[in-house]
Amino acid sequence: MQSLYLSLLAVLIVSLVSLSGIALFFLNKKTSQKINLLLVSFAIGALLGDTFIHLLPEAFQSLNSLTVSFLTIVGLLLFFVLEKILRWHHCHEINCNESKHLIVLNTVGDTIHNLIDGMLIAASFAVNFKLGIVTSIAVLLHEIPQEIGDFAILIHGGLSAKKAVLYNLFTATSAFLGVFLFFFLGSKISSLSLYLLPITAGAFIYLSASDLIPELHRHDQKLSHSLLQLIFIILGVALMSLLAFLE
C-alpha cells in the first residue's frame, strides 16, 4: 500500500505545481489579453511536441506500428465527430459562440492525458521508489508547459480565469483516477494506457491543426506578430524536446 500512497502524493504535487503557470494571467487583464495569442502559439508547439516527441515514440516502443497508426487516426476521427456534434449544438443556440467547442475538446484531451500520467506514475512506484520519483519529476516538468498552453486555450475559448482554473482542476483529478485504476485493476489497465497514448496523440494533432492554427490565421497580424507566433510555436516544441533529454 505504500506505493499507492506515494503515487497519490506525487500526483497531488504534480497537479498543484502544474497549476502554478496560470499565475501569470492574474498580473492584469490587459496583459493577459495581449499575450493570449502568443500562448495559444506556445500551446500549438507544446501539443505537437508532446505528440511527436513523447506520446507516439512511447507508443511505437510497446505496440505494433500499424496499431499505433490506426489508433492515431481513431483519435483524429473521434475528435472530428465530437467537434461536429459540438458545433451543431452551439450553432442551434440563440447566442452561438464558435469558440466554445475548443473548451470541450481541450478538456477531453487533457483528461485522457492526465489519466495516463496517473497510470504511469503508479506503474513506476509499483516497480521501485527511485523509478517513481524520476517518473514523477519527468511528468511534473512535462505538465507545467502543457498546463500553461491548456489554460491559454480555455481563456481563448471564452472562459474567465477563475473558470479556467476550475476546468484545469477538474482535468487534474483524472490523474488520481489513473492511480486507483492501476492499483486496483493491475496489469490489464496498464495495457489499456498504452492504447490510449496514440488516441491522445491523434486528439492533440486534431486540436492543434484543426482549431488552434486556424485561430492564428484568423487574426490580421503584422509581420512582427506572425514571427512572434512562430517563435512561440518553436519554443513549445523546443521545450518538449528538452524534456525528452531530461527523461
**Gap between N and C termini, in Å?**
26 Å
Task: Please give the number of β-strands.
Answer: 0
Mean of residue pLDDT values: 79
Q: Structurally, how many domains make up the residues?
A: 1
Order of helices and strands: HHHHHHHH
Count helical runs.
8
Please mark out the parts with pLDDT under 50 across 5 or more consecutive residues, or reply none: 89-96
Radius of gyration: 18 Å
Helix fraction by DSSP (H/I, runs of at least 4): over 70%
Structural class: mainly alpha
Main sheet: strands, sense, barrel: none
Indicate the proportion of strand residues: under 5%
Q: What coarse outline follows from CA principal-axis ratios?
A: globular
Topology:
Layout: H1 2-18, H2 29-62, H3 65-90, H4 100-127, H5 129-156, H6 161-185, H7 187-218, H8 223-246
Helix pairs in contact: 1-4, 1-5, 1-6, 2-5, 2-7, 2-8, 3-4, 3-7, 4-5, 4-6, 4-7, 5-6, 5-8
